Amino acid sequence: MPGRSVVLMLALAAATLSACKYDVKVDANGFICKTVADCPSGYRCQNATAAHSGVCCSPDSASCVSQSATGTNSTTGTTTPTRTGTSTSTTPNTSTASLSTTTTSTVSATSPDAGARDGLPPGPEAGPGTSTITGTGTLGTGGGGAVSSGGTTTGGNTGTGGTVSGTGGGSGTGGRSGTGGASGSGGVPDAGIDTPNGGTGGASGSGGTRDAGIDAPIGGSGGASGTAGSGGGGAGGTGLTAPNCVGLPATCGLSGSDNCCTALVVPGGTFNRSNDSAYPATVSDFYLDKYEVTVGRFRAFVNAGMGTKANPPAVSAGAHPLITGTGWDSTWNSRLVSTTDALKTTLAMPTLCEGVHTWTDAAGANENLPIDCVTWYEAFAFCAWDGGRLATEAEWEYAAAGGSEQRLYPWGPTDPGPNTDLAVWGCYYKGTGTCSGMVNIAPVGSAPAGNGKWGQSDLAGSMWEWVFDWYAPYVVSCKNCADTTPADNRVERGGGFGSDASYLESADRESGDPLLDRGSAVGIRCARSKP
Questions:
Q1: How far apart are CA 385 and CA 381, in angstroms?
Q2: Where are the beta strands (DSSP E) in 248-394?
Q3: Which of 312, 306, 357, 307 is nearest to 82 (CA)?
């Protein structure tokens, strides 16, 4: 927010951590407060509610402080917690850790470079390329030859193409003196996605043969089915290429062989936002990435010199085609860091993101981890560069809730256990519920049993995901809607790797400052409009 600075490093290694929204845990003597009595003289307790603790701030809100376990101020500059925003969860924050801070640089809404090194030359531009976004499909069905009693019969029905690289059906023929059926036709390619929406149909079946001694013909055999977007009847389609997938190996998911750039169709429909019948919403068909954006995908964006003042998105890029006012605004350019080198520095700055960063300057073991420590503006810029956009809040929740099924969690009604079978949450990944930092962040797609109705992974847990909307009360009427009225915070959804189970619920909505909220569990998932 204007006038507020953020420079905070949490000593994770020295802290005993438990699960909460922000994946940062401090005890009752830390920077959190319930009443003004918890704060130093002259400070007030800001944003405290019955369910959530607040932070100690000066009367003009220009500075917030962190108290040590002994109650003395241990800051060396103006500090504010890296996670700011409004919570709708009813789960109280509890903690047992100590906190210390070190100020090394500042960032504010009017000077938002967050540790940028101004004046450094931008990184090299990456050349254009092509790649493939794949999906799973449904096999088409082919007809067999019909058998007639004593008469001539025609061939079977044409096979239909599968959906997203599906296979076309074969067509059978039969009947005495019958002719072969027509080849099945291929699916129509979808604009805006790498793979064609349908495979091609199967080859024509052969005509029926007459059985010796009887007048009834024997049905002809069905045609062969096409495979993987090609078949006997035609050629597969082409679509939009995703620049960030050029040269990116297919290493995602538990198998380690899935395309990290896969985008899956979410069929449109109507549901109740936050599972409240007073707030229905309707969304059209759209694509939503199967995985959260990985470090590897984000690296291509950074190496292309994008997401900086030097190379911001084009005006109106990343817009929802059915919602005005959702494209990139040129006034947002100032919210980006100045250069590629500055962006790399910020993504790994020790005083940001609670000191937990998945980014590394050189490619290595983190390539399949979700990128974290990104602002809303950087998330928007990435998705726009990738040929997509940020999902609206209604679209995101619709996918997580399974549409009209109104699922409690993306996978259904079952509460997650003290493990990562269904979600990466509560610091149970390589842990027992005590957060240790980077070790608790899992590669994307590590809990496939918790996938949503349409196949998206990690809609609950792993990383909080930025969506387009400003945070405000729901509007009553919503058909392909988004909140475009400027406010203090943008909406975050889904919960993080250290979150309580209540934050994993599909209906839960939280918020964060779009410029200052560089959190250890704040990441990206892109959407794409479907024609």
A1: 6
A2: 263-266, 269-272, 280-283, 286-289, 389-390
A3: 357
What are the sequence ranges of the domains in the chain?
155-239, 250-529
Are residues 397 and 273 in contact, defined by beta-carbon separation less than 8 angstroms? Answer: yes
Tokens of 82: 């890296």
Note whether 66 and 53 are within 8 A (CB): no
213-231 burial string, b = 16+ CB within 10 Å, else e?
eeebbebbbbbbbbbebbb
CB-based contact 232:200 (threshold 8 Å):
yes
CA distance 159 to 143: 6
Residue 380's closest CA among 334, 470, 323, 317? 317
Which of 423, 330, 328, 338 minimizes the C-alpha distance to 379?
Answer: 328
Q: Where are the beta strands (DSSP E) in 137-290?
A: 209-210, 217-218, 263-266, 269-272, 280-283, 286-289
What's the length of the chain? 531
| Cβ atoms < 10 Å from Cβ of 94 | 14
- pLDDT per residue as tens digits for the range 294-336: 999 999 999 999 999 999 999 999 999 999 999 999 999 999 9
- The C-alpha angle with vertex 303 and arms to 297 and 306, in degrees rounded to 5, equals 90
Second-level CATH architecture of 250-529:
Alpha-Beta Complex (3.90)
Residue type, 478: C
Alpha helices in 78-176, H assignment, sequence order: none
How far is it, in rounded angstroms, from Cα 511 to Cα 525? Answer: 16
In the chain, % of residues over pLDDT 70: 54
Contact 287, 261 (CB under 8 A): no
Q: CA angle, corner 12, sides to 9 and 18, nearest 5? A: 120
**The pair of three-digit structure tokens given for residue 336, joined into one six-digit string:** 């980006």
Cβ burial of 321 (10 Å; 0-12, 13-18, 19+) is: middle
Average confidence (pLDDT) over 182-207:
37
**CA within 13 Å, CB half, 284:** 12
Angle between helices 376-385 and 295-303 (to 10 degrees): 80
Question: How many Cβ atoms from other residues are within 10 Å of residue 88's Cβ?
Answer: 14
DSSP 465: E
Q: Decide if pLDDT at 155 tops 50.
A: no
Threshold 0.70, pTM exceeds: no
